[in-house]
């Protein structure tokens, strides 16, 4: 049985379009799940409530971009979420570095680190400062491992 070259070309194009559409849909759904997650929401809310950091970005409006799925700094498992969230305002942009852990008692996420680093190098600790309460005493030992220095060797485990 012979199949014409034209039919094979059509089949190849159809398969390529179908595969590309599936990949795009999967990417969109993964990004949507990240944006809806509690650890992502807590970090963005903390940024929105920090007046100095928002002023440094030139926000509002604050634009939260999709995380880079291939970035090795983004690691999420059942108990710890380390996420690097790209954000921009009208003045500049930067990354919102977050580390959250799951509390087994409440089954909810708690931020351990939330730091905004602007492109210009300025950093804002979103867990402490004039607008936010200090880190609770029971979490200070956990946050001391992350001393606010966003050096890549300290960021990744």
Automatic annotation (TrEMBL):
Family annotation (PANTHER family): CYTOCHROME C OXIDASE ASSEMBLY FACTOR 1 HOMOLOG
Keyword vocabulary terms for this entry: Membrane, Transmembrane, Transmembrane helix
Lineage, uppermost ranks: Eukaryota, Metazoa, Chordata, Craniata, Vertebrata
Protein name, per record: Cytochrome c oxidase assembly factor 1 homolog
Pfam families membership: Coa1 (PF08695)
InterPro entries per record: Coa1 (IPR014807)
Transmembrane portions of the chain: 12-30
Keyword Transmembrane helix: yes
Gene Ontology biological-process annotations: mitochondrial respiratory chain complex I assembly; mitochondrial respiratory chain complex IV assembly
Organism per entry: Gadus morhua
Entry annotated with the keyword Secreted: no
Region (Disordered): 126-157
A cellular-component GO term for this protein: mitochondrial inner membrane
């Amino acid at each position: 049985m012979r199949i014409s070259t034209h039919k094979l070309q059509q089949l190849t194009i159809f398969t390529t379009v179908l595969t590309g559409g599936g990949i795009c849909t999967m990417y969109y759904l993964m990004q949507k799940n990240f944006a809806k997650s509690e650890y992502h929401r807590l970090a963005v809310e903390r940024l929105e409530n920090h007046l100095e950091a928002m002023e440094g970005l030139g926000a509002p409006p604050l634009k939260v971009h999709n995380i880079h799925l291939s970035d090795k700094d983004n690691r999420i498992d059942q108990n710890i979420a380390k996420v690097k969230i790209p954000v921009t305002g009208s003045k500049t942009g930067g990354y919102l570095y977050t580390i959250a852990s799951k509390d087994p008692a409440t089954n909810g996420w708690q931020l351990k680190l939330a730091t905004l680093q602007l492109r210009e190098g300025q950093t804002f600790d979103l867990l402490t400062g004039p607008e936010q309460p200090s880190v609770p005493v029971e979490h200070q030992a956990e946050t001391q491992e992350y001393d606010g220095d966003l050096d890549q060797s300290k960021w990744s485990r």
